[in-house]
Write a structure and sequence with these properties.
Blueprint (H helix, E strand, L loop, with lengths): L4 E5 L6 H15 L2 E8 L13 H25 L6 E7 L2 H11 L4 E7 L3 H6 L3 H8 L4 E6 L8 H6 L1
Parallel strand pairs: 1-2, 1-4, 2-3, 4-5
Helix pairs in contact: 3-5
């Protein structure tokens, strides 16, 4: 298999460095491009509510700009400058948005973090990596993330 486009779907709570490290190793080997994607919550009017006052829309727009800056900082801080990389911030339903973006970009590999939780937690909550596995034919690399081992300094690195 030849990988030319690798999509790394991140949540700012994930162990970003670990996910990027896997993507970087594969990208260097195959001379692939890395797309770092974060799916932000949809705007309130998308989920059936009327948009609020202008100050609320302005606040949401600023939040999205900050998230995009974080993504760009992740690319700059964690990915070798020799690797072509692009930060993407989109809004919508996580699973459907990741699949749609991966197909649009013709990605050959999806890399996601998967959290270690109990059976009952997984039963009652959305497991993004499992849903991606069920709904896409694109190869998926799910990296187990242990929240107890996450690096607290990562937030400082991406906010810089």
């Amino acid at each position: 298999m030849n990988f030319k486009n690798i999509l790394v779907a991140i949540d700012f709570n994930d162990s970003i460095g670990e996910l990027i490290s896997y993507a970087e190793g594969i990208a260097l080997k195959f001379e692939a491009k890395i797309w770092v994607l974060h799916v932000a919550a949809p705007n309130p009017d998308f989920v059936g509510y009327e948009p609020g006052p202008q100050y609320i829309r302005d606040f949401r727009a600023e939040e999205l700009r900050d998230e995009h800056r974080k993504l760009q900082n992740i690319c700059d801080a964690f990915i070798d400058p020799e690797i072509e990389c692009e930060a993407l911030l989109i809004q919508g339903s996580t699973v459907e948005s990741v699949i749609e973006e991966a197909e649009k970009l013709q990605c050959d590999l999806l890399i996601v973090g998967t959290h270690k939780h109990s059976f009952f937690y997984n039963l009652l909550s959305e497991n993004v990596s499992l849903e991606l596995l069920k709904k896409t034919d694109i190869p998926l690399l799910a990296i187990p993330i242990d929240e107890a081992d996450e690096d607290d300094d990562i937030e400082e690195d991406i906010d810089a």
